[in-house]
Amino acid sequence: MRETVIVGAVRTPVGKRNGGLSDQHAADLSALVLNELADRTGVDPGIVDDVIWGCVSQVGDQSSNIGRYSVLAAGWPEHIPGTTVNRACGSSQQAVDFAVQAVMSGQQDVVVAGGVEVMSRVPLGAARSTGTPYGPKVFARYDDFSFNQGISAEMIAQKWGFDRTQVDEYSARSHELAAAAQDRGAFNDQIVPVTTEGGPVTADEGIRRGTTAEKLAGLKPAFAEDGLIHAGNSSQISDGAAALLVTTAEKAAELGLTPLVRYVAGAVTGADPVLMLTGPIPATEKVLRKAGLGVGDVGVFEVNEAFAPVPMAWLADTGADPDRLNPLGGAIALGHPLGASGAVLMTRMIHHMRDNGIRYGLQTMCEGGGTANATVVELV
């Protein structure tokens, strides 16, 4: 297998619902990061073998293979193909894995992976507006469970014994870390500003400064009357896009590119679709085995904050160092633009590794239906 590297990673700011990016078409937002990736790396788009693009709600603005139309919106040559991947919240992380598999195997040499979601224009659940994706056999197998992620998050909190104060304290931590990272310029080099009718959007919009567990305690539970999960300890509905350039170490040298990280290992797992959001735990175990690493070898973990109990349960089961978990904040503060989130997290993690000399990073995402991706990269 060929040594595979990531040589570029860029993202838009993550816009809040009905915020600064809400007037952007998904193809145009994608085109922005595609062109920024080409500009920053100096790679001629004409040599790209494929563009693999994550997107969850593939209806309306995001229908009809948004990956292909993003390539065309970018003005890239018509011979460059594009395809769209849906592995729920892990869609663009899976896009990166597919890109790596194509390059590592020798089938392709230069692949762009990333994703987009403009949830302000294509609402969460829009793809289910005329039916259900589950079907009677699935409902029968799982006792007519609603497959509601919020209810699953409540079940995780109960199973791991987390109380309301703990989940709210974790959520306040996300905002505190994200604000600190933004203030010290940790995101500046990875973000491409977006020009909009309302002016340029240059920074992530979801951070709520001064958030405390005491303030969050006043929010009403969203999924169960006596529950713990509410808007303040859940990921935010968001807009955004991100893109990464994947190639071989040999091709990077030929093109005069400096690799950012080497791809070490990837894994995907299925887990209980009722608990649904626990997949990152076995996915982490699987990818560490493949990488030949222990949890203590990893210097930074990006575990998507779909709901606070998800990374909390992951932390409890893995025994990882809590200071290495989501050190820049997570989706509770920074937002979760579904199909873009995997690529956004990878971009954040890679730049954090570069800025701080961290050798190994591990990213994992819980996903609807009870699946999860995990990826390990190594600083070059």
| Shape label | globular
Could you tell me the radius of gyration in angstroms?
A: 19 Å
Helix content: 25-40%
Strand content: 15-25%
InterPro entries: Thiolase, Thiolase-like, Thiolase_C, Thiolase_CS, Thiolase_N
GO molecular function: acyltransferase activity, transferring groups other than amino-acyl groups
Family: Belongs to the thiolase-like superfamily. Thiolase family.
Keywords: Acyltransferase, Transferase
Task: Walk me through the structure.
- Keywords: Acyltransferase, Transferase.
- The protein has 380 residues and is an alpha+beta fold.
- Helices cover 34% and strands 20% of the residues.
- The chain contains twelve helices and twelve strands.
- It has helices spanning 26-41, 66-73, 91-105, 136-141, 149-160, 164-183, 213-216, 249-255, 280-291, 309-318, 331-334, 341-356; strands at 4-11, 15-16, 50-54, 82-85, 110-118, 194-196, 199-201, 238-248, 261-270, 300-303, 360-367, 371-379.
- α1 (26-41) packs across α2 (66-73) and α3 crosses α12 (341-356).
